[in-house]
Amino acid sequence: MSLTLVIGNKTYSSWSLRPWLLLSHFRIPFSEKLLPLDTDQFRAEIPALSPSGRVPVLHDGELKVWDSLAICEYLNEAYLDQRGWPSDLAHRAIARSVSAEMHSGFAAMRNELAMNVKRVNRPLAQVSAEATADIARVQAIWTDCLERSGGPFLFGDFSIADAMFAPVVYRFRGYGVALSEAQQRYSQAILALPAIAAWEAGAANEPLMPKYEAR
After folding, report:
1. How far apart are CA 111 and CA 161, in angstroms?
2. Who has the most CB within 10 Å: 34, 77, 136, 201?
């Protein structure tokens, strides 16, 4: 098996989930190497595995591809025959736009509503105005895309865009963010994916990390 994806804890590593979900959903054979975050093992092994010193990183033979969106783009070209993006040109342009926005933005939401697969409906006592604006923007993206496509996923069929937003489904579920009916249906469609069930099964026996549980 030539593909190996190096990831962090499935409970917390939102960036790792994205390419893992794409690989698993499209049934691309791969092996995974999990390095527990913030451990001596991670610090000892990551320099030889990832040029950035971070996860995820994909190894395809001698090739290393790091950064979650770059990995998804590589898989789309090398293994999916371009099926990772919508076939319609306009939809594909929008899918790339919202994926890039997710990739580079929403810092306040990321910081305050950390992904935690095991957290369910435990709202924060207070959410900043910046994080609230981030949440509203994600909801607007979902609404716009779902109205255009009719669902069940952002662009009809599952795409890289859904892989990019899947961690947000966990953020919203974990912190009890109120959703519209359409947004709830979308979240349920993501959570019902067999690949998501497999990810959660992998997270089930991971130890909790106080750093990420304190929020």
Report:
1. 21
2. 34
Contact partners, residue 193, CB within 8 Å, separation at least 6 = 21, 25, 158
Distance CA 177, CA 206 (A): 25
pTM reported for the whole predicted model: 0.96
* Yes or no: domain 89-197 corresponds to CATH 1.20.1050.10: yes
Distance CA 19, CA 163 (A): 7
pLDDT tens profile 98-137:
999 999 999 999 999 999 999 999 999 999 999 999 999 9
Q: Tokens 């109120």 appear where?
A: 178
Question: Which residue in this structure is represented by tokens 């090398």?
Answer: 78
Q: Where are the domains of the chain?
A: 3-83, 89-197
Tell me what pLDDT residue 122 has. 95
What b-and-e string marks burial along 100-118, b requiring 16 or more CB atoms within 10 Å of the CB? eebbeebebbbebbbbbbe
